[in-house]
Amino acid sequence: MVQRHKIHRQLCSAFALLGLCLFAAAPTHAAGSLIFKWVDKDGVVSYSQAAPTEQGAHDVTSFTVESLPIAQQRVAARMLANLEKVANADNAAREKRIKQADQKVEAALERLQKAEHQLSEGSTPTGADRVGNVGGHARLRDSYFNRVTRLQDDVDKAQQALNDAYALRDSL
User: Fold this and answer.
1) pTM, two decimal places
2) Which residue, 160, 156, 153, 155, is CA-closest to 116?
3) Of residues 41, 48, 79, the one with CA closest to residue 63
């Protein structure tokens, strides 16, 4: 959606400079060269290679690059090629961000699994954790409870890191 609005603004500026605002609809030729022009509900003129889908769009016209005068065809073709290049670069950058986010999710998941394993292992009292034997029952030292609390904190932090990594990934 953001990319579409960016392209709309670029097309609008470029076509306004070229004096294309008054072109009427032309027959469809190559699908990639068909350009739509419309006015939205706020009176903003927009251009796109896709028909408008928003509510309130009116005065929809379309034309092809081929229907323009030769000089404007060249300019429009260069502009469309540049927009495609920018869109491809934006897509590559987005894919890179997604890959990095996936790596963060994987690392956070591994950290959580390790922390849970350490909690499981560390929760079992050892002989050093026991104090005396009163009535057949041993008391546990404070060090045991401190260790388990620290291990649980590690699990909680790892879980939060995983949640944050998922939220980042979902926002892309």
Assistant:
1) 0.55
2) 155
3) 48
